[in-house]
Amino acid sequence: MLIVMEKTATPEQIENVVSIIEQKGYTPRPIPGGERVAIGVLRNKGPVDAALFLGIPGVKDTVPITRPYKLVSRETQPEDTIVTVGDVAIGNGRLTLMAGPCAIESELQALTIAEKVKAAGAHIFRGGAFKPRTSPYAFQGMGEEGLKIMARVREVTGMPIVTEVMDDQTFDLVEAYADIIQIGTRNMQNFSLLKRAGRSRKPIFLKRGLAATIDEWLMAAEYILEGGNTQVILCERGVRTFVNHSRNTLDVSAVPVVRKESHLPIIIDPSHAGGRRDQVIPLSRAAVAVGAHGLMVEVHHEPDKAMSDGAQSLYPEQFVSLCRQVDAIFRILQNGTDAI
Amino acid sequence: MLIVMEKTATPEQIENVVSIIEQKGYTPRPIPGGERVAIGVLRNKGPVDAALFLGIPGVKDTVPITRPYKLVSRETQPEDTIVTVGDVAIGNGRLTLMAGPCAIESELQALTIAEKVKAAGAHIFRGGAFKPRTSPYAFQGMGEEGLKIMARVREVTGMPIVTEVMDDQTFDLVEAYADIIQIGTRNMQNFSLLKRAGRSRKPIFLKRGLAATIDEWLMAAEYILEGGNTQVILCERGVRTFVNHSRNTLDVSAVPVVRKESHLPIIIDPSHAGGRRDQVIPLSRAAVAVGAHGLMVEVHHEPDKAMSDGAQSLYPEQFVSLCRQVDAIFRILQNGTDAI
Amino acid sequence: MLIVMEKTATPEQIENVVSIIEQKGYTPRPIPGGERVAIGVLRNKGPVDAALFLGIPGVKDTVPITRPYKLVSRETQPEDTIVTVGDVAIGNGRLTLMAGPCAIESELQALTIAEKVKAAGAHIFRGGAFKPRTSPYAFQGMGEEGLKIMARVREVTGMPIVTEVMDDQTFDLVEAYADIIQIGTRNMQNFSLLKRAGRSRKPIFLKRGLAATIDEWLMAAEYILEGGNTQVILCERGVRTFVNHSRNTLDVSAVPVVRKESHLPIIIDPSHAGGRRDQVIPLSRAAVAVGAHGLMVEVHHEPDKAMSDGAQSLYPEQFVSLCRQVDAIFRILQNGTDAI
Amino acid sequence: MLIVMEKTATPEQIENVVSIIEQKGYTPRPIPGGERVAIGVLRNKGPVDAALFLGIPGVKDTVPITRPYKLVSRETQPEDTIVTVGDVAIGNGRLTLMAGPCAIESELQALTIAEKVKAAGAHIFRGGAFKPRTSPYAFQGMGEEGLKIMARVREVTGMPIVTEVMDDQTFDLVEAYADIIQIGTRNMQNFSLLKRAGRSRKPIFLKRGLAATIDEWLMAAEYILEGGNTQVILCERGVRTFVNHSRNTLDVSAVPVVRKESHLPIIIDPSHAGGRRDQVIPLSRAAVAVGAHGLMVEVHHEPDKAMSDGAQSLYPEQFVSLCRQVDAIFRILQNGTDAI
């Protein structure tokens, strides 16, 4: 951290800040400049709290310099993390496609969709058994019954399954069924849930919060790694901005930034980003082109009868087209970006 | 809901939408316009899912018309909800001041601060025993020990206490000690926690999420009321925007809007909104002037030694000044706005 | 427009709104619902001002239904607009690449860069002669001297040139030299400039404002078309959000939305969106994959000596790689999306 | 500026950055830390361009330290700027109220409103003769005829007048009539207009852009001061965020920040911030309570017949109430904040 002093700071004020830094066990390094003094805070470990300095006489501002995360950082682990579930590996240089309905509604519905998305090229089946819903009056998911149906889908199709966990109470249950456990957008900073996920032996699929910076998102992942679980997949799904023509704003630049900062794989969810069916395929192409390791896409064979998020679910034949398009784009990236 | 058809929609496409509306059990009402047709969806109860119509041939857009919440709405309950804890009533026409440290650090710290804020005019003591922290390496709070200290503060000073609950596992524990249970910003849409809060017999202090619309915030409150707990206090604490001179952007207009839409009391937290000590008093004045029912303010007698959020904590003498200023402003509102 | 009445609105209040609608020359169409009445406003032309109804007793809200733009709408002109300059056509089914330095610094600099970008595959040369700069102390561009250099580049390389106009006073001058006239982000709602552009006989390259909705952006284009100039190219270059890892947030979903709503071609500027060199190539791939008609990219042969925006300028060899990658992606879109 | 090196930066890379700094005429100051090296850039004048360093091998990030503005800074001029027009002074310790219609529609309308707002306590009459409108089909203002009517209002009432200028072509005209010249939100970074304003002998009323940071806003003011005109009044009028219950989000914390950073007076426009009549009075109270030097408020005697922005215009009797309330709040600030 750098502490920037007011131009008018007195030598006594500077000395006072220096001694506070020393009291906290850090090493102060004053940097006299042309107009004002700044004081570097050299430290042993962990971030320094700006709170210690803001408001002290003569201090104008504090400037953080290093990133707060450690275990998720590529500076700690230079090589990519590859997450393996069954025959599928995420982040290993192949594109991973996760697809399925927003919510599990029945065994027939789940199997129908699963077989269609598998035939199109999906590797992992997604589906919601416990659904976080803005309204208490909306369909909240089938619960364990939904999990059993998903297990049946796995049995029939061979695809690993990913599904959301909403709380600690149902974590053991979800963990018992799922191959990958999803922590949703609204729970990205549910720290109790993150700590529980850190003790899980299953990979965690961590969606970015609606208004989370990349630092905050990686810190949420840090909770999981710090707890002992290194199998974390990040998922960008759009952030909230003033833009109103899509449900959220897909932040594609998050992909190169995350890939540079962290060794964890990153997936994009174009369905929740756009929120409308006609944006899903274009956003999927952009997601793969920008360098994501995979996609999570909502597909429903009868979207106008879906019990949630039907408006953003693709028809199975659209998903076939999507797979064809993104596979072609992904092959270009594999062949063509070596010179970048 | 209103379904807006494309200008080029055919009579068959319009007829198809009409029949889908009927199949869902709603009443369609086509409205032929100059340029295009719109179709009203009249309904019995609950919101209609846009998903049912977006993507159907000939449909251009859907437009929600009514608000999704019921129990929190002033249309359901015209008179103000007054939340009572001990001798203190929130929303009864008097200004409620909640103050205390971000985190409970020791009995001495808590009692020192509590006596100072009480002397200045605070009615309720705030303090964190379980702390949601962005970093897993940051101080996470004293846990039950902190709750015991807060109970001791109540015993000594007579002030009711408000403290945050982070998860279901510790809900019973927090409920046993607290007079008011806080659900924090990052948990505003932790629906499991909201449902548990709905079964509590203690008032709930529900902070607005960082990127939550008022509709989403009121829907989170709706979860609690729907569960049977009508004692909910809303707290605006700033939202996340592009603005970088304050930690968050205090959305003062939320106060008149919430007061018009809902019967629940609304408090402002200027400390987390500004994130810097020198903004807290001006924001507090704005908060009371705009019509909030009260304030929640962080105060610490040694903010440069605080274990969290010291940079935004007021010195006790600043809190004295704050109380004096906001009381004077509140009296004007009581006397002077009858003509509005 | 739809006027939503309060649940408690009286028949007299409803009747009053109906008569106001009639006084304004519109046709009212009341829609009695289960809980409340809404009143449709049918109209002959142009948008209805919400101001006429908000605040009238019994009115809860107004809901706009139709889009405010006309000439730029695909409902007015279903077929794509193709903008032609010299041998280059924009929006004709081929990918258009515009490249060059942020600012023209010298003839040698401009020619050096122009020949490199042309060799790599660029079709149009970009460069700034009049530069909008946040600081009055920053380099403001070479002015007419810069325009002359650009004309020289055109003469030598055969590439058409695009450059920014900042005001009415210099419009004639810029128009005399440029093949395409750029209106920058900060001037998107400089209505005097838009009106002047509407009288120009040169194509206009209209960048989206930092916080502009698509409606506002298309309305800015509407000013130009309404003035008589139908040759408008839209350019998405990132919007301002809370996100801080890129200079702006590239809104890729703007492309499918604009292409659906309007017949005008849309280009993406990945350089200003990312603001950092290492984001430009990934964002370019995303831009082409999502369906943009072309790219505008900053390239400099000595970016660390550039007089503005060097940090986001590609090295010429990076631009070679970019062209190769986006061409491959664009070919996939031409071949592969017929089934979408 | 501080240049943060990668942990893995080699001594050669560090040496290279040091020599680049020297080549540019700055003084490098390396700061070896526990984990990585940072290099301070000490300079004589003006900001250092990050572009010079981002992308150089071994460089992780650059961190700006000092503010880019000079003349508007309180570090340059510690005492408040007081802007005087006729008998009215802005920023002199009294509250300044500017009021009037959005657009001048007729002499009768203007005089009617002017006399009502003057009687209520307004000091300056506002009104639009040239109107920036999102739609080319909307009423664009009366032009010079409107200016003549405003001059007539001044003659009759004695109130100075403030009105917007939209471009260079009409600057002389507006300057000839107006006492204070307004530069609107959409023109905050119209640099040609700012330069012209810098040559004006009339005070400039500079509205904040929809997505402008305070740094950018103060830099826009810097253009005017740098041009020789020191009479600048800043106006906060809400910024664009995801929030949809008000037209814009009033950023009240801008007031204490601007007052700390700059010596220029700051006014709040609650009418454009809220965009709805029922938010104007609460926001006005907040504006004065937070410390603004004054308000600019839209008032219309027949808002439902107004030609623009009627929905946010107060009735004259509401403005009477507003004046009474904010005067009382302002008196408290004058008396009561000495201890802050």
Structure characteristics:
homotetramer, 340 residues, alpha/beta, Alpha-Beta Plaits, TIM Barrel, 2 domains, 8-stranded parallel β-barrel, 4-stranded antiparallel β-sheet, 10 helices, 14 strands, transferase activity (chains A, B, C, D), aldehyde-lyase activity (chains A, B, C, D), transferase (chains A, B, C, D), DAHP_snth_FXD (chains A, B, C, D)
Query: Which segments of chain A are poorly predicted (pLDDT under 50) over 5 or more consecutive residues?
Result: none
Question: Whole-number average pLDDT of chain A?
Answer: 92
Q: What is the spatial order of strands in the main beta sheet of chain A?
A: 7-8-9-10-11-12-13-14
Distance between the termini of chain A: 33 Å
How would you sum up the global shape of chain A?
elongated
* Percent of residues in β-strands of chain A: 15-25%
Rg on CA atoms of chain A, Å: 23 Å
Query: What is the succession of H and E elements of chain A?
Result: EHEEEEEEHEHEHEHEHEHEHHEH
Biggest sheet statistics of chain A: 8 strands, parallel, barrel
Note the quaternary state here: homotetramer
Given helix and strand content, the structural type of chain A is alpha/beta
Helix share of residues of chain A? 25-40%
Using a beta-carbon cutoff below 8 angstroms, give the protein chain pair with the largest interface and the number of residues from each chain. Answer: A-B, 53 and 53 residues
How many alpha or pi helices of chain A?
Answer: 10
Question: CATH fold name of the largest domain in chain A, please?
Answer: TIM Barrel
**Architecture (CATH level 2) name of the largest domain in chain A:** Alpha-Beta Barrel
Tally of individual domains of chain A: 2
Q: Total strand count of chain A, please?
A: 14
